[in-house]
Amino acid sequence: MARALIHMPASARRGDIIEIRALIGHPMETGYRVGADGKLLARDIIRTFECRYNGETVFGAELHQAISANPYIAFFTVATESGTLECKWDGDNGFTHTEKMTITVSAS
């Protein structure tokens, strides 16, 4: 199972711009390298990342073989209401991992 770290504020004021930073532990094998036995190593990459804020997509990315192992993604969104941010990674070989974080948004 992959290990993910998400850093974001636990609370914000309505209208504040918040930064979300997500890191997931994953080897990201490109499928182009040759192993010790001389055969190509099977491709094993994370293909997509999506973050949903109370069910609405606020950020998404397609990842390819050139992405490093343990991909780190940082982005910004506007704090609109209290709720849940759900980050989801999907990859090869049926890989999927989801992390949820809550945020409390105050009026001002």
Give an overview of the whole structure.
The protein is mainly β and 108 residues long. It has a single domain, classed as Immunoglobulin-like, CATH 2.60.40.10. The protein contains no helices and eight strands. A five-stranded mixed sheet has the order 2-8-7-4-5, with no helix packed on it. Strands 1-3-6 form a three-stranded antiparallel sheet, with no helix packed on it. Strand 7 and strand 8 form a beta hairpin. The protein is elongated, with a radius of gyration of 16 Å. The relative contact order is 0.33.
CATH C-level class: Mainly Beta
Secondary-structure-based class equals mainly beta
Strand segment count = 8
User: What spatial form do the alpha-carbon principal axes imply?
Assistant: elongated
Q: What is the chains' assembly state?
A: single chain
The domain count comes to 1
Strand content: over 45%
Reported for the largest beta sheet, the result is: 5 strands, mixed
Strand order of the largest sheet: 2-8-7-4-5
Low-pLDDT stretches: none
CATH homologous superfamily assignment: Immunoglobulins
Instruction: Please tell me the CATH architecture by its name.
Output: Sandwich
State the helicity in percent bands: under 10%
Total of helices: 0
Task: State the end-to-end distance.
Answer: 40 Å
Chain-averaged pLDDT: 94
CATH fold type? Immunoglobulin-like
Give the SSE string. EEEEEEEE
Rounded to an integer in angstroms, the radius of gyration calculated over CA atoms is 16 Å
